[in-house]
Write a structure and sequence with these properties.
The chain is mostly helical. Helices cover about 75% and strands about 0% of the residues. One of its GO terms (cellular component) is plasma membrane.
């Protein structure tokens, strides 16, 4: 008889643990990103309010955050009342200021953008207008107010004139710089293809200049919103600037602080709106 064959015992080979890291759950990752986005601004706001409250406790005439908050609630309970030209709600004053800024800034964009393209495109025109721009650009915005009052003989158009003349320079200079930075090879190809000036403008220059143009517009709207408050303080009538000056005459410092916050919030909203507009027309996306 043949002896039975003994089979060797086989030992199980240990399996190495997987080295692939576990992926975080989508909800947990979104929550982490939300915390990272929200916590720093909240800490900054809390720090600002804390410093404000500390200064208010040491200053006899400066209201603190809490009393200013209660005053704001009372103020915005009826923001659109109208008891005459010199007694209007805060909502009407904001709208009047925004209307003047829209008109002045719109005129500046309407004239400044084509002029910037022309200056960047044609060296002769750039050399001709460069001394004038260099002379007028450093002039303080409020220095233009007496000229506006003299020419237009009314406070409203004079304020719009100040906004226009103050905000046109960033638009012109940034647009011209963008046109001048377009590579010459692009223009040479357009010349070889015998493209019309309109096609050169729309197909080559505008997409390349858009980032510079949006930067100029953002700077211009910031200048316009900055100038309108000071102009309205001097011209009177309606608007945030006049409202701030009127509240100062009434020694209502809480309302002045509220106006400062409103000016900052509206300026921030305008800038964010322009950023969204820039993304909407971003040719890279």
């Amino acid at each position: 008889m043949n002896a039975p064959v003994k089979t060797p015992l086989t030992m199980a080979t240990p399996v190495a643990p997987s080295s692939t890291p576990r992926r975080a759950l989508p909800g947990a990752e979104a929550f982490t990103n939300l915390i990272k986005a929200v916590i720093p601004p909240l800490l900054g706001i809390a720090l600002f309010i804390g410093v404000w409250a500390l200064i208010a406790t040491r200053s006899e005439g400066l209201p603190g955050p809490l009393s200013t908050w209660y005053s704001a609630l009372e103020l915005f309970a009826d923001p659109f009342y109208d008891n005459g030209p010199n007694d209007m709600g805060i909502g009407w004053n904001i709208l009047h200021s925004l209307g003047r800024v829209g008109l002045g800034f719109g005129l500046a964009a309407l004239i400044g953008i084509p002029l910037g393209f022309a200056i960047g495109r044609f060296a002769f025109l750039a050399n001709m207008l460069s001394p004038i721009i260099s002379l007028l650009r450093p002039v303080s915005p409020l220095a233009w107010l007496p000229i506006g009052l003299l020419v237009f003989e009314a406070a409203g158009p004079a304020s719009i004139w100040v906004i226009f003349i103050s905000s046109i320079w960033p638009i012109i200079l940034n647009t011209a710089a963008g046109v001048a930075s377009v590579p010459q090879d692009y223009l040479n190809v357009a010349r070889v293809l015998k493209l019309s000036e309109f096609k050169v403008l729309t197909r080559i220059l505008f997409p390349a200049v858009l980032p510079h143009l949006m930067t100029g517009i953002r700077l211009a709207i910031g200048v316009a919103w900055l100038v309108i408050v000071a102009a309205e303080m001097l011209t009177g009538g309606t608007g945030l600037g006049f409202w701030v000056w009127d509240e100062w005459n009434n020694l209502n410092v809480e309302h002045i602080l509220i106006a400062i916050i409103i000016v900052g919030l509206v300026g921030l909203a305008l800038e964010q709106a322009l950023l969204l507009l820039a993304k909407r027309f971003d040719y890279a996306n």
